[in-house]
Write a structure and sequence with these properties.
The complex is a heterodimer of chains A (about 280) and B (about 300). Chain A is mainly alpha-helical. Chain A has twelve helices and two strands. Chain A is globular and about 80 Å long.
Chain lengths: ~280, ~300
């Protein structure tokens, strides 16, 4: 929201704007405090002569940074980013393209709901990772099997949210639309679709988080499937490879990279959501 | 003196507005439940909603007014008798009747302007004339500056006004309003009465307005239908002869208006007492036993 508050009489009251965004200050402070505690904890052995349990075994943030530096110039590292992103995007977009219409159809048609929902509810509890072996057998390439598992991660969440969102649309809206001469396609397009949009974006945000979880695990299990080998098999494989190679700093680099990637993706979805559902943020 | 109340039917010919309908209820009965659990909510209810007039229905709360609205709108069918519009029997909802419900149902994802234009767009009439009509109505309800705001950014009273404009643009031949200003504070309510009656005077369409607020009923009504306690039927019809445009101050100052108010209050009070007595089985039994003993 802007610093201009709308007021009943049509005039705007300008509120004093703070020098720096307070939520930014809070975020920086929290991350800074976390890094300092981590650094002190990780270096307790050399600084104080005893090992803090758990944290003492983790590489210090400065050591992670030192390991990260050269990786930034390594095309294999960026290849990992790209591969994981591409897999997440492929699975996510497929889940949206198939999940949204399916969810709307289930919500709108009683007949289809009766047929599709039981099947859906039996398949839904199967964790995406349980699909990995079957997926590797069924799909011709490793890449497709990883993308398929990623797709499953987001798919169920998207469908459930779309169905719930469409069914919870207030019947007064539909009644009002009908009494003004609206019918069929028009009600779907101008009432049901925009009414479901907030739930679609909630489903997308949650689904995006799950795709990142799933893609990393799938890469670890399937061995990344990259021709570049080594550090070129996606961020999940990058972590696994670092573990096998004994580079603990790189494990942490991989973990933080996934954190950043996930944050970027969900920020992008939130931004899209605000763009397409302006009525929710303007109060 | 502008205002005179009479309980007789009007005799003179009425001005017949184009595209305005009239509705008639004849011996309407509506009951819910099965067999021995069946209760009548409406019984032997007959009245007319006259062409081009603002008919207000008032009655004790819980008397079955909302049931009557659903019957008029065609959402439900009567168990007996008939509901007809322009002589034709009502068999279901129709675009000739537009119902404005208690709670506001502006579409939250559309701006005020888009909400108002919903009906014309739905019927493929997104023409320049219609857009101008929308602008005019927005201006009439004082929302021109808020046309690009979403409903969540409007106050309660603004939302009701936007709803009025959204309904009016469809130019229904009969508009049915079910306590549309309920829950608003008194100042806002009075403002709404003025906006609404001006819109009514301008369009001259048939309006049917349900309320429990006596001031609202008298200020708005051409004809005031007072309902009985459940099972509901018409108790009294009061013709409110009060020149339009009406002044709010007359509700307090004008003796004739106050006379109508007293008359209406008296009738409503009797009905309320009945409903009070009927609500308590024990009290009713006591009264029965008492009167038997006195009689015997």
């Amino acid at each position: 929201m802007s610093a201009i508050a709308p007021v009943m009489n049509g005039q705007a009251v300008r509120m004093r704007k703070p020098m720096v965004n307070p939520s930014l200050i809070r975020a920086v402070t929290a991350i800074g405090a976390f890094l300092i505690l981590w650094e002190v904890g990780a270096r307790s052995e050399e600084w104080f002569g005893f090992t803090v349990p758990w944290v003492g075994l983790v590489p210090a943030p400065t050591a992670v940074l030192v390991a990260w530096g050269p990786l930034l110039a390594d095309p294999g590292y960026w290849q990992s980013w790209w591969l994981s992103f591409a897999r997440v995007l492929a699975g996510f977009i497929a889940a949206m393209i198939i999940g949204i219409p399916l969810g709307l159809w289930i919500a709108v048609s009683r007949l289809f709901r009766g047929m599709a929902f039981p099947v859906f509810e039996i398949l839904r509890p199967i964790p995406p990772l349980a699909w990995v072996p079957a997926s590797i057998i069924f799909w011709p390439t490793q890449e497709m099997s990883i993308a398929f598992v990623t797709f499953l991660g987001a798919f169920y969440t998207v469908v459930i949210n779309v169905v719930g969102g469409a069914q919870s649309i207030d019947s007064r809206y539909i009644q009002a639309a009908k009494s003004m001469g609206s019918s069929g396609m028009d009600i779907f397009r101008r009432i049901i679709l925009p009414g479901t949009l907030p739930s679609i974006f909630i489903g997308a945000a949650v689904g995006m988080g799950i795709t990142w979880e799933v893609v990393v695990a799938a890469e670890m299990i399937s061995g990344g499937g990259s021709s570049m080998g080594g550090s070129g098999g996606g961020l999940g494989f990058f972590i696994w490879n670092s573990y096998v190679g004994g580079s603990y700093e790189q494990i942490v680099v991989g973990m933080i990279s996934i954190g950043i990637a996930g944050y970027l993706s969900s920020t992008a979805i939130r931004a899209l959501g605000q763009r397409f559902t302006p009525w929710l943020s303007s109060r | 003196m502008h205002a005179v109340a009479s309980t007789t039917e009007p005799t003179g010919a009425q001005t017949t507005a184009l595209n305005a309908s009239e509705m008639t209820l004849l011996h309407v009965k509506k009951s819910y439940g099965e067999k021995e659990f069946q209760t009548d909510v409406v019984r032997n209810c007959s009245f007319a909603i006259e062409r081009g007039k603002l008919t207000v229905m008032i009655g004790p709360s819980g008397c079955g007014k909302s049931t009557l609205i659903r019957l008029l709108a065609g959402f439900e069918r009567p168990s007996g008798g008939s509901v007809s519009i322009d002589g034709k029997k009502v068999t279901g909802p129709g675009h000739d009747r537009l119902v404005l419900f208690q709670e506001t149902a502006l579409f939250p994802w559309m701006t005020t302007g888009e909400n108002v234009m919903y009906g014309p767009k739905a019927r493929g009439q997104n023409t320049k004339e219609m857009r101008e009509r929308g602008d005019y109505l927005l201006d009439k309800v004082g929302l021109t500056r808020f046309r690009n705001k979403y409903p969540s950014q409007l106050s309660g009273g603004m939302q009701r006004r936007a709803e009025l404009a959204r309904a009016m643009i469809n130019d229904p031949s009969i508009m049915i309003l079910d306590e549309p200003f309920r829950g608003l504070d008194h100042m806002t309510k009075e403002l709404m009465w003025e906006y609404y009656s001006r819109l009514f005077e301008e369009t001259g369409r048939t309006n049917f307005f349900v309320t429990t607020d006596i001031d609202e009923a008298i200020y708005l009504a051409d004809r005031l239908i007072i309902m009985t306690n459940r099972p509901t039927r018409v108790r009294t019809v009061v013709e409110v002869h009060w020149e339009r445009p009406r002044k709010l101050a007359d509700l307090v100052d004008n003796d004739a208006v106050n006379l109508i108010k007293q008359e209406v209050l008296q009738v409503l009070h009797q009905e309320a007492m009945k409903s009070f007595a009927g609500g308590s089985k024990a009290a009713a039994d006591f009264v029965n036993a008492f009167s038997k003993r006195v009689g015997g």
